[in-house]
Amino acid sequence: MSFPLYRRPGGVAFLDDDPAFLDMLGLVLPEHWHVRFFLQPHDCINALQQEPSLWEMDAWKMQSIADEARDGRSPLTSMLNYWKSDTERYRLTRVCMVDYYMPAMNGIKVLDELCLWAGTRVLLTGQADESIAVTAFNQGLIDRFVTKQSPNMAKLLSDIVTQSMDAAHSRHEQIWRSTLTPQHIAWLKTPSIGKHLNELLKGIDCVEHVVIGKPFGILMLNAAGQAFWLQLESMEGLAELAELARSQDMRAEDVAAIQAGSKMPNLELSQALGLPHAVQLRDAVILGGDSNLHAALFELGPELSPGSPFSYAHFIAGLPKRSLQ
After folding, report:
1. Radius of gyration of the chain from Cα atoms?
2. Res. 128: pLDDT tops 70
3. CA dist., res. 169 & res. 42, Å (int)
């Protein structure tokens, strides 16, 4: 999939017996990341072994929301309520980076203890350990390995974390894929469309999103807790929207703009949320430059958005100062 169906930030864990190395990372890694540093293998293992059941509970919540879409109902309201419930989902660790050579337990054995934890596993090695890392990678024990003597080490690790966060989580993909049509999936697999969608999300500082099939679009949340809806329509869908707009006694020039694909109304969004909002028209763009898919962005009001108390920015601001554990 060129564009992930669900994406959100999560935690990063570093395990290394060198406090100076961890202190350096604490100073240079982005402040808007939830990062934990461990000096002892058993502390890291104990912390991450608590998470599989939490991941399972979170996936169950998401599955129950997705089931609404498969039953023919829109899951928009339930998804917004899920985002309003708490911010604990941001604590779940997405990436664990472990030093290979440690006196108490080597990094591969640490990761082997985390057999039920399903995040990205990165092994930090010395140059002499590279063959061991290659073997571990080929056996599927790790996802990446990095030589600690690599130039620009901090940037390299930051890039790996960013790539892991941007990648789709397999469980989330499975849940939301079942709610989409083959045509929806084909569009989202198109690289040019995926690139354009990522640019649109970046423009609103989106930290979390989910692709929904009915109505077809992307529900998004920025770092401040403001929700947005990116409505996606084919030319055939725009023709149906134009007919719906005509039935709502919209002006003839607006109906023509909708049918031509230059404008899009929020009629489907309002119906899905059960809100008697006044009709809003927004400029529409063609995704990927020459596809059959159009998009228009709508901002959801404060009564629908989670707001600051349930925002990612509020979650990060409430974290304790970074320290070695």
Report:
1. 22
2. no
3. 26
The answer for residues whose C-beta is within 8 angstroms of residue 315's C-beta and 6 or more apart is: 34, 87, 90
Q: pTM to 2 decimals? A: 0.93
Confirm if 211 and 275 have CB atoms less than 8 A apart: no
Largest CA distance in the chain: 76
> How many angstroms separate the CA atoms of 75 and 69, rounded?
6
Same domain, 100 and 212: no
Distance CA 112, CA 48 (A): 12
> Do 153 and 200 lie in a common domain?
no
Inter-residue contact 87 to 310 (CB < 8 Å): yes
Please check whether residues 43 and 151 belong to one and the same domain: yes
Per the structure, how many domains does the chain have?
Answer: 2
Reading phi first (left if > 0) and then psi (alpha if -120 to 50, else beta), residue 307 is in left
3-state DSSP assignment of residue 188: helix
CB atoms within 10 A of CB 51: 21
Q: Give the list of residues 6+ apart from residue 152 with CB closer than 8 angstroms, or none.
A: none
Enclosing domain of residue 159: 6-169
Query: What is the DSSP code (8-state) at residue 9?
Result: -
Helices (H), 29-129: 41-49, 51-70, 76-85, 107-113
**Is residue 127 located within the same domain as residue 254?**
no
- The owner of tokens 């719906």 is 244
Q: Are residues 64 and 99 in the same domain?
A: yes
| CATH number of the domain within which 116 lies | 3.40.50.2300
Query: What letter represents residue 35's amino acid?
Result: V
- The answer to which of 69-78, 149-158, 270-279 has the lowest mean pLDDT is 270-279
Do 146 and 215 lie in one domain? The reply is: no
Residues in the chain, total: 325
Residue 325 covered by a domain = no
User: Do both 220 and 126 map to the same domain?
Assistant: no
DSSP code of residue 322: P
Residue 208 lies in a domain: yes
Q: Tens of pLDDT along 188-210?
A: 999 999 999 999 999 999 999 99
236 φ, ψ (degrees, to nearest 5): -65, -40
